Amino acid sequence: MVSNDEANGIDRAACESAARIDGINAAASLTRLPQRAGAANAPDAALPLVAAGEGIGPLLGLPPATGLILPPDIADGLGVQAGDDVRLTASTDLSAPAAALPVPDGPLPVGAVTETTVLGEQYAYAVLLPTSASGKASTCMVRVKAGYLDAARDALPAMLGDAGQDAVVADRLIGGTYARDFSAEYAQRGLKQAPWLSGTAVSLLWLLLVWIRRGRDGLYATLGADRATRTIIRTTEGLTLTLTSAVVATGVVAGTLAAMTTSPEAVITDITRHLTIATAVSMLGVLTSTLIPLRSPLAALKDH
Q1: Which residues span the membrane (predicted)?
Q2: Which of 15, 47, 101, 130 is the most exposed, having the fewest neighbouring CB atoms within 10 Å of its CB?
Q3: What whole-number distance in Å separates Cα of residue 59 and Cα of residue 55?
Q4: How far apart are CA 108 and CA 117, in angstroms?
């Protein structure tokens, strides 16, 4: 998502702090600078410059920025790669009125070389200069987790607004006839009810087992076990099996994620919720099983 306010600007600190909101992966403030820059080996390159907030690294799927971020085309043109140093010389472009930012003197490290097309045409093909979270920016870009898009739409305008006027917030990547709305796909996913169904299936299996074994409970009653004792036995058995199964499932899932997924943290929240709901519903089934009536002790003895 992107919030634009070219006239009044968006507070950089407010933009960067949006990353702390639940459901927002990253947020970075961006300002296209009036300067263009050359390098020692390409003094007339006239490279566009963009002042980017500290969140630009996570916004692009990188660690926090520690230097310049270059798109591959610019890096290839300058003959540099991540870890190299670049000395920039800036000149002002009077045709692009914007707040000027002094280009640091001396060699600057290249923190990363990565695709920046996600930032849009105005900011993609440019040298990204990390800057402090102070002053105003023209744009705040926010990367939102699937399922949190509506909440972000509601919260960001007021959070990034100024003087009582809400900021303009729009989707950056979702739109057009052939675009995919990942948030809607997530909300309508086929496995949305899977944890409830899994827990219900385990509960029904346990209830069936208790029903089949109710004759044994009747024999316990003939041997002097009161209802409280039989309830404790049945509940202990059920909870032990349920919790043991949950531990085994957690181990299997953790091993599978470690072996087959490059970014397990992207799905760990969903998996934790799935296991928690399934386990809770299963435990509810175990507690419900204590309400199943006993079979007649005489009928159980006849069967034996």
Answers
A1: 194-212, 239-259, 271-294
A2: 101
A3: 6
A4: 23
pLDDT digits (tens, 9 = 90+) for 251-291: 998 888 888 877 777 778 888 889 999 999 999 988 888 88
Cα separation, 58 vs 250, in Å, equals 29
State whether 199 and 179 are in the same domain: no
Does 12 lie in the same domain as 30?
yes
State pTM to two decimals. 0.55
183 with 210, same domain: the answer is no
At 190-215, the pLDDT tens digits run 788 889 999 999 899 988 888 887 77
What the block records as the tokens of 75 is 């890096």
- Rounded-to-integer distance, Cα 136 and Cα 8, Å: 8
Spatial neighbors of 110 by CB under 8 A, at least 6 apart, are 67, 68, 70, 75, 80, 81, 82, 83, 84, 85, 86
Place of tokens 């939102």: 144
Q: Decide if pLDDT at 174 tops 80.
A: no
Pull the structure tokens for residue 89. Answer: 């010389």
Host domain of residue 10: 2-187
Domains in the chain: how many in total?
A: 2
